[in-house]
């Protein structure tokens, strides 16, 4: 009985030590990342948003990338309509993924922009970080898909996909779960749609011609 109690005490002590060592790093990773400088504008028939994610790249994550582990950020987008005295209506929802991979032999970073199907190669980590976390004029909706019963807004959230560590690095990166991050939902209002343009005066029917038999 005493042996069991001794082993139980050791196990509890290990859990306390593990939680005090792991939790702060994970909490910092989650709380430190957030969407910043979020804005929206209309351009012709399209609604566009711009933003960036701050605090996403921790030292652990940078170390993993430079070890050659592909890393993917997933961005969640929701277009919603304000509804008075009821739940807001979800108009559309989609995801965008961006992935970075470091080539140790060529010493270059390759970033795949999923929304464009475009691959960009850069030489520096800070350049790769910008490609992974900055969006400029990202299309989120078109005027034809929205009625005139607005107003509308967009919610955006970023998260790090689970890192798939190769077997030869699994021991070194045993705490890969600590790299996980997930931002809070950020929100930006879409500009109101302009009123429909009236037809030119010259296109109006001639009253006298309508009256004629």
Number of domains: 1
With strands numbered from the N-terminus, the spatial order across the biggest sheet is: 6-5-4-3-8-9
Radius of gyration: 26 Å
How helix-rich are the residues, as a percent range?
Answer: 10-25%
Can you count the helices? 4
Average pLDDT works out at 78
Q: What is the H-and-E element order?
A: HEEHEEEEHEEEH
Low-confidence runs (pLDDT<50, min 5 residues)?
Answer: 4-30
Structural class: alpha+beta
Write down the overall geometry.
Answer: elongated
Largest sheet: 6 strands, antiparallel
Describe what this molecule looks like in 3D:
By secondary structure, the chain is α+β, with helices and mostly antiparallel strands. It has one domain. Helix content is 25%, strand content 37%. It is built from four helices and nine strands, in the order αββαββββαβββα. It has helices at 2-32, 59-66, 125-133, 207-211; strands at 34-43, 46-54, 71-81, 89-103, 108-113, 118-122, 134-142, 152-160, 186-189. Strands 6-5-4-3-8-9 form a six-stranded antiparallel beta sheet. The chain has a three-stranded antiparallel beta sheet with strand order 1-2-7. A hairpin with a 7-residue loop joins β3 (71-81) and β4 (89-103). The longest helix is centred in the first third of the chain and has 31 residues, at 2-32. It is elongated, with a radius of gyration of 26 Å. The N and C termini lie far apart (111 Å). The model is unreliable at 4-30 (pLDDT under 50).
